[in-house]
Amino acid sequence: MKGLVLAGGKGTRLRPITYTSAKQLVPVANKPVLFYGIEAIVAAGITEVGIIVGDTAEEIEAAVGDGSRFGARVTYIPQEAPLGLAHAVKIAEPFLGDEPFVMYLGDNLIAGGITSLVEEFRAGGCNAMILLAEVPNPEQFGVAELAGGAVKRLVEKPKEPPSNLALVGVYMFDRQIFESVRRIRPSARGELEITDAIQDLIDRHLVVHPHRVRGWWKDTGKLEDMLEANHIVLEQLRTPRRGEVGVRSRIEGRVEMGEGVELVDSLVRGPVVLGAGTRLENAFVGPYTSIGEGCTLVRCEIENSIVLSHCEIRDVGLRIDGSLIGRNAKIVRTDFKPKALRFVLGDNSEVGIQ
Fold first, then answer.
1. For a Cys-Cys bond, which of 46, 79, 124, 192 suits 86, CB 3.0-4.6 Å?
2. Global pTM value
3. Can you give the pLDDT of all 354 residues of the chain as single tens digits?
4. Which residues of 245-269 are buried (b: 16+ CB within 10 A; e: fewer)?
């Protein structure tokens, strides 16, 4: 069995972060989202992995390499444009051959990995297995309609959803999917939809097995979902500490500290991850916060946030909450007169001021 990871999307809903970084490499608990998916595939015993890449191919390849760090062998498959999930399957056929495979969307997280799901697929004698989760906004997903426990119909982003069961971004297929991909036509948005391909399997009376996800699942395409995923992963945190806790500093709860972390007159209340080389001085870092490597936080407070590497936050009078702060960003107070707010913001930035 092989793995197919999709890492070619543009990540428009996470701009401006994704203007300069692939959305699959935005970190959750200081680890790129993409890495969780690759690790889950390898943990299921699958070591031949193809990665679909697009405009951010160079960055993805630099981060993942040949896959040896994960115990995998990685093959990169270029996609000239984001033409749909079924198109990704189509161009991956030479890599996948006749073997069954798991397809994993690179910006998704799923509780407990996929080992038991892969075993269920291998033992089930079906042509495809789809994962379904109940969601409050099914119109934003591919949606399944079931009848008697079987998949009756699939619809992509329906205006009037037939159910609240959304397709989770993990699929398993045998070679029959390639014939279905060849039979379908592009949708109104110009993409080959995986929902249409699976529907073709159903129409050809092949076996599509639905599996309801009972634990959590996150598509990390939006800020709110990124923060919630960060919250969930940090909730499972252990507490290896390798940094230096100063005499007037305090750690409460589960806090993971990288090499060379310095705490000076600061309080860290977990669950929190502090990246290597980060320095806190007269600062408070509250629960469910990930601070990347090489950051400096001085006379400030932050919680429920993700801060990427090499940021500086200094002399901020109000607590920062529910934020995603990109690499090398600076949030500092200045004493220029007359006093005013000064911003340098990229497209699609959002700033809340009280």
1. 192
2. 0.87
3. 999 999 976 655 555 455 556 778 888 899 998 999 999 999 999 999 999 998 889 999 999 999 999 999 999 999 988 889 999 999 999 999 999 999 999 888 887 889 989 999 998 789 999 999 888 888 888 899 888 878 888 888 888 888 989 888 899 999 999 999 999 999 888 889 999 999 999 999 999 999 988 777 777 677 788 888 899 889 888 766 666 677 789 999 899 999 999 999 999 999 999 999 999 999 999 999 999 999 999 999 999 999 989 999 998 888 999 888 888 888 887 766 666 666 555 555 666 666
4. beeebebeebbbbbeebbbbebbbb
